Amino acid sequence: MTDRQDAERFLRDRLDACDDGKLVVALASKNLTFDTWADWFLEKRSKPPFRAEKTHAANMNALKFLRPAFGTFRLSDISPEAIEDYLGRRLAAERTIHTKLGVVHRGKLKPATVHQEYRVLTRILNVAVKQKRLPLNPCIMVEFPVSVKKTTRKPHYMTASEQEQIEFVAPSYLKRVVVILSEMGLRPYRELLTLKKGHVDLENRLVHISDSKTPSGVGDMPMTEAAWRAFQEQMAETPGSEYLFPTPKSTSHRPHMTNLRKAWAVTLKKAGVPYFSIYELRHTFATRLSAGGVADHFVTQMLRQGDAGVFKRYSQAKLNMMREALDRLDRKANEHDRSSGTERLN
């Protein structure tokens, strides 16, 4: 028997099995429920290291509401109409908080909250399409019924004068955090607070990021002069710890600081600066690079976002280019043009 005949017989057997409902993969796809697929998604596409811990937590939280609505549905039975009905119900639902005194109602859910659930559903079904469990994602035929732009707070870009006010009243460690984040664009919690002193090379003015939100975030980042001084001072102030920002709490489960929110809020209040998230110092870094004339695609590389494979192949050239970009930081960027800005960062 020839190879062609073997191939034709194999194809006939597969088609017959599919028609009789005996083909395992086809049967599994046909009867696959949303609940079963959501379990697979959480295990294979949501947990670290595939996604950050916070992303996994957000996925799990969204599924608390998605499962009751779609859990028993077969994937192929989830229609655009069913999704639109779900969004309508959620947008009309009230936000409730359980306290010791009972259930407290806090008005209707914010559109941004419901939109996050919609994004998670879209992501789960997109993966189903890629895994050939679903021919088409019904979410692409759904238009979110309300605008979320007005309900989402715009990012704040710290001006040079605001930075001076903040650093004047901030505790010494927090002052250094502000300098490092605005000069290097590190992610505050995943990259800076977890940083070990052994990963800080003062001699060559490099920081090695060994763990990040995305694979492209891992790598070496050069320091500016201001960042180098901040690292040097912080290392000198914390002898005896392998971490750059050791926890001051003896009861802490982790050897490094894990939260800056309270200290940050207090500092902003003392400085007379309206509250904004400390994460937005990363936006400030990006804005200052752009204002200094650094090309947008290289700003993305400096933030270690997206596919940085080309730059990782040529590490020395990459570092030289990054140092040149840091030299062009415009620390007065926001005071030149208050309307300028960059898109929201990860």
Describe it.
- With 346 residues, the chain is mainly alpha-helical.
- It has two domains: 110 residues, Tyrosine recombinase, N-terminal domain (DNA polymerase, domain 1, Orthogonal Bundle); 177 residues, hpI Integrase, Chain A.
- It has 16 helices and five strands.
- It has a three-stranded antiparallel β-sheet. A two-stranded antiparallel ribbon has the order 1-2.
- Strand 3 and strand 4 form a beta hairpin.
- Helix 7 crosses helix 11.
- The longest helix has 20 residues.
- The N and C termini lie far apart (58 Å).
- About 6% of the residues have low confidence.
The dominant shape is globular
User: How many β-strands, per DSSP?
Assistant: 5
> What is the number of helical segments per DSSP (H or I, 4+ residues)?
16
Rg computed from alpha carbons, rounded to a whole number of angstroms? 25 Å
Secondary-structure element string: HHHHHEEHHHHEEEHHHHHHH
**Uncertain stretches of 5 or more adjacent residues:** 23-27, 307-316, 338-343
CATH class of the largest domain: Mainly Alpha
**Average residue pLDDT:** 83
Quickly give the structural class: mainly alpha
* Total individual domains: 2
Summarize the structure.
With 346 residues, the chain is mainly alpha-helical. It has 16 helices and five strands.
Any chance you could write out the topology, listing elements then pairs?
Blueprint: H1 3-19, H2 24-31, H3 34-46, H4 53-70, H5 80-92, E1 94-99, E2 102-108, H6 111-130, H7 160-169, H8 172-184, H9 188-192, E3 200-201, E4 206-209, E5 219-222, H10 225-237, H11 261-271, H12 281-291, H13 296-302, H14 309-313, H15 315-327, H16 333-336
Antiparallel strand pairs: 1-2, 3-4, 4-5
Helix pairs in contact: 3-4, 4-6, 7-8, 7-11, 8-10, 8-12
